[in-house]
């Protein structure tokens, strides 16, 4: 069965090693098509384990959403009628609107397809945690209408955590929901080796997009509370500057706190390089204010590092408080500083936590399970399509 994924992910040609591994694994599903975004301002079309149809990456998120809402349905319809796509998989309810529109138009033209809508995060509130929104009431209304249309037209759903599953259950009723983690090149993290005390430097690591939602400013403040007591500790921040203004504020915050030379900013890196950063770290911190799952948590655990994470979203599904790391209330800088201090003062116990974290990661994700879960989704979609087509093919009495 031919399947098309629609989402906001960006791809280059050739694919980076992580994306190549992902789509090479997904070849087991059959012909896979992808509607996403290119790494630059040019549209691209190429094949590498899947067939990619990439929209140019416009500078503002709202423009990219409009681009997907307008062009996405046209591309999806073309793939349905010219390439025989039978299943559409939307990365979020917002991309789901484009897929749902294509599904409805295809049905009018006599072609039935199944729609899978995925939920990778808090699609209701995360935008408002990122930045100040003018006319928030209007935004909420429009976002609710778009998400509602997608979810009402979905045939089945996918969540990445219990929290995202509960959110889908509040919006829908009686639709099948499959739950499994987003893709990661987990083997790169298991295989990575490094000393977390190289040259006497102990490293606190954050990895992820630089947005207010991730709470990196709280981590910087927490680090400042203990920096003087631990002169050999450094904070490293790895990730794409999704909102340049926020990244500039973080650098200004570092200067104002007198932490220049103690905090380093590293841009977005491939997963193989991220694995090296994680394997060298003493502790990994994810201070998010909201989080669908937090894939980087299990990646850090796979390198044998203890994790401090906010007690939000799917993070508590991975971090066992006091066993593999610590959970802290989101935005609580004092609690975060306290747990960081405890780990730095108890390196043996921190190492034992990291060992237990690695054992957990070994059972939490595998490429085989990831592919098998998508096979189950397609099996369910095939069954739903078969029943629907049989019902419409039956003569009326």
Top keywords for this entry?
single chain; about 400 residues; alpha/beta; Rossmann fold; 8-stranded mixed β-sheet; 6-stranded parallel β-sheet; 14 strands; about 45% helix
Give a topology summary.
Elements: E1 3-11, H1 17-26, E2 32-38, E3 44-47, E4 51-55, H2 61-82, E5 87-90, H3 93-108, E6 114-119, H4 126-130, H5 136-153, E7 156-159, H6 162-171, E8 177-179, H7 186-191, E9 202-207, H8 216-226, E10 233-238, H9 244-256, E11 263-266, H10 271-280, E12 283-286, H11 295-302, E13 307-310, E14 325-328, H12 333-345, H13 347-364, H14 367-393
Parallel strand pairs: 1-2, 1-5, 2-4, 5-6, 6-7, 7-8, 9-10, 9-12, 10-11, 12-13, 13-14
Antiparallel strand pairs: 3-4
Helix pairs in contact: 2-3, 3-5, 8-12, 11-13
Q: For the report, how would you describe the main beta sheet?
A: 8 strands, mixed
Number of strands: 14
**Helical residue percent band:** 40-55%
Order of helices and strands: EHEEEHEHEHHEHEHEHEHEHEHEEHHH
- The overall number of domains is 2
> Which structural class should the secondary elements be placed in?
alpha/beta
Supply the CATH superfamily name of the largest domain: Glycogen Phosphorylase B
Q: Which fold does the CATH topology of the largest domain refer to?
A: Rossmann fold
Backbone CA Rg: 22 Å
Shape: globular
Please count the helical segments: 14
How far the N terminus sits from the C terminus, by CA atoms, comes to: 32 Å
Query: Uncertain runs with pLDDT below 50, 5 residues or more?
Result: none
Tell me, what is the CATH class of the largest domain?
Answer: Alpha Beta
Major sheet strand order: 3-4-2-1-5-6-7-8
Domain Glycosyltransferase subfamily 4-like N-terminal: 25-171
Organism: Neomoorella stamsii
Keywords: Glycosyltransferase, Transferase
GO molecular function: D-inositol-3-phosphate glycosyltransferase activity
């Amino acid at each position: 069965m031919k399947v098309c994924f629609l989402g906001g992910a960006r791809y280059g040609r050739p694919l980076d090693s992580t994306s190549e591994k992902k789509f090479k694994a997904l070849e087991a599903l059959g012909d896979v098509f992808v509607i996403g975004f290119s790494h630059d301002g040019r549209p691209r079309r190429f094949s590498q384990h899947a067939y990619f149809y990439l929209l140019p990456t416009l500078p503002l998120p709202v423009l990219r959403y409009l681009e997907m809402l307008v062009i996405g349905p046209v591309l999806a319809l073309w793939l349905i009628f010219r390439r025989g796509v039978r299943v559409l998989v939307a990365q979020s309810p917002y991309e789901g609107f484009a897929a749902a529109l294509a599904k409805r138009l295809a049905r009018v033209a006599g072609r039935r397809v199944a729609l899978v809508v995925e939920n990778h995060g808090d699609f209701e509130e995360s935008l408002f945690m990122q930045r100040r929104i003018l006319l928030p009431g209007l935004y909420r209304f429009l976002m609710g209408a778009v998400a509602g249309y997608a979810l009402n037209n979905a045939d089945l759903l996918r969540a990445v955590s219990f929290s995202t599953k509960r959110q889908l259950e509040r919006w829908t009723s009686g639709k099948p929901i499959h739950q499994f983690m987003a893709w990661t090149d987990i083997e790169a993290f298991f295989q990575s080796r490094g000393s977390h005390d190289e040259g006497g430097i102990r490293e606190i690591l954050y990895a992820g997009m630089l947005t207010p939602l991730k709470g990196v400013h709280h981590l910087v403040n927490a680090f400042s509370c203990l920096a003087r007591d631990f002169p050999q500790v450094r904070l490293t921040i790895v990730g794409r500057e999704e909102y340049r203004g926020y990244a500039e504020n973080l650098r200004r915050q570092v200067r104002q706190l007198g932490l220049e030379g103690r905090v380093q900013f590293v841009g977005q890196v491939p997963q193989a390089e991220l694995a090296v950063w994680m394997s060298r770290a003493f502790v990994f911190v994810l201070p998010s204010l909201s989080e669908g799952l937090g894939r980087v948590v299990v990646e850090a655990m796979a390198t044998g590092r203890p994790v401090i994470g906010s007690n939000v979203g799917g993070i508590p599904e991975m971090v066992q408080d006091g066993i593999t790391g610590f959970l802290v209330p989101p935005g609580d800088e004092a609690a975060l500083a306290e747990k960081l201090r405890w780990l730095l003062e108890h390196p043996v116990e921190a190492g034992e936590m990291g060992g237990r974290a690695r054992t957990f990661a070994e059972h939490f994700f595998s490429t085989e399970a990831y592919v098998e879960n998508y096979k189950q989704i397609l099996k369910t979609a095939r069954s739903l399509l078969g029943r629907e087509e049989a019902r419409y093919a039956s003569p009326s009495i």
